[in-house]
Every structure is written in C-alpha cells, then in structure tokens.
Amino acid sequence: NAGVTQTPKFQVLKTGQSMTLQCAQDMNHNSMYWYRQDPGMGLRLIYYSASEGTTDKGEVPNGYNVSRLNKREFSLRLESAAPSQTSVYFCASSESGWGYGYTFGSGTRLTVV
Amino acid sequence: KQEVTQIPAALSVPEGENLVLNCSFTDSAIYNLQWFRQDPGKGLTSLLLIQSSQREQTSGRLNASLDKSSGRSTLYIAASQPGDSATYLCAVKGGGTSYGKLTFGQGTILTVHP
Predict the structure, then answer these.
(1) Are A18 and A78 within 8 A, CB to CB?
(2) Quick one: which of A106, B23, B31, B78 could link to A98 by a disulfide (CB 3.0–4.6 Å)?
(3) What is the rounded distance in angstroms from the CA atom of residue B64 to the CA atom of residue B95?
(4) How far is A6 from A23, CA to CA, in rounded Å?
(5) Which of A42, A96, A107 faces B106 most closely, judged by CB atoms?
(6) pLDDT, tens digit, for every residue of A24-40?
(7) Cα torsion for A61, A40, A102, A36, to the nearest 10°?
(8) Whole-angstrom Cα distance, residue A28 to residue A25?
C-alpha cells in the first residue's frame, strides 16, 4: 500500500528555471494538499484541492501553481524558481469530512541556487 | 487565524523516562487534532488522531489527550526508548474559514539517550 508518493525526492534548480513536483495517492481520497517546511517556520500550506476539479490558495501561494490532474494526482509547479523557494515540499491527502486525518508523502527536497 | 504552539521546543531525557509533550491552539473551533512524528530528512508519520468530541486516544506507549475548551493537547510517551528520538508535530484541523486545513505547531525535538 503506497499511500502518498512524491517525485522527485531531491532536485537542484538554477534561479529562473521551472519544474513540476508530482504527487499521487492511491487511497481514493478526495482532498489533497501541498505544504512547504522551512526551519523556524514550520509547515505552511501552499495550495489545496478539496475535491477533483477544484483548487484554492493556502497561506503562501505566491510563485506557485497547481493542477489537480485527476482524483489521484495533484502537481505543484514553480514557473520561475527563486532561492526563497528552497525548501522541503510535502504533499498530503485526506478523505473529505471533518473527522479524517491526513496522510503525508515523504517529501521533495528542493534547492534553488 | 489559528495558531499552534508546542512546548518545549526541545527535550532530552534518559531512556526509560515517561515524558509529556504539550500543544496549545488559539481557536477552539477544531474538528480534530493529529500528532505526527518526523525523523530527520523524512516525511511525517501519523501517530494519533483525536476527534474534537474525544478526550484521549491511545496507541501502545503513546497517549494523547485533548481539552478542546482550553485549547490544549498533550502527548504522553511511556518508558521512552532511543528509537523514540524524533521531532513530534501537533496539527489541528480547523472549522469555519479554516475548514479542512491543518495548522501545525513548530514541533518538539525529542532526544532519548541510552
């Protein structure tokens, strides 16, 4: 049972380059989320998708775009990477409804030089 | 805006001790609270999920309590072991305008030495 799978695990980008972080879940969850984790800042929500076909901004959406490709997949795109986007990115999913917890992927460590 | 605070920021204990990690949140309109464990360079592993209507949850040596009205939760770890060394994160799932979204604390870094 894979849970939430993120690719790639590590990436180094030059300033101005673009890339897409991929996330897929096999638990048939409706909701998916992208977080970034930075020292001293904790985990902060970038974007989320409450259900297939919908996306909404979280706490720190600037510089990012997302696509909910289907129920399984939720991608995060950096159009023009900046050093401030150096971080560890986590994807998560949950079932809809108030009572459910989150399942997280293993993360993507991104460095922008 | 929901804010989650974890105390202490770091804790170092000898093996075998019982210990308590604390989590507080400012907005009591939550649906549930989840405790996670994060090992260095790894993802988040869910430990316990407490619904807003519950007072506590137990899993093995772990016990989590929730006092929603006072905005507090504790994670109790019995008979600590070196393998318990990790960062422990508390997260609340909000209601109202924060519907469905998790807000995290900064974490407690736990070191259990032999």
Answers:
(1) yes
(2) B31
(3) 21
(4) 5
(5) A42
(6) 999 999 999 999 999 88
(7) 30
(8) 7
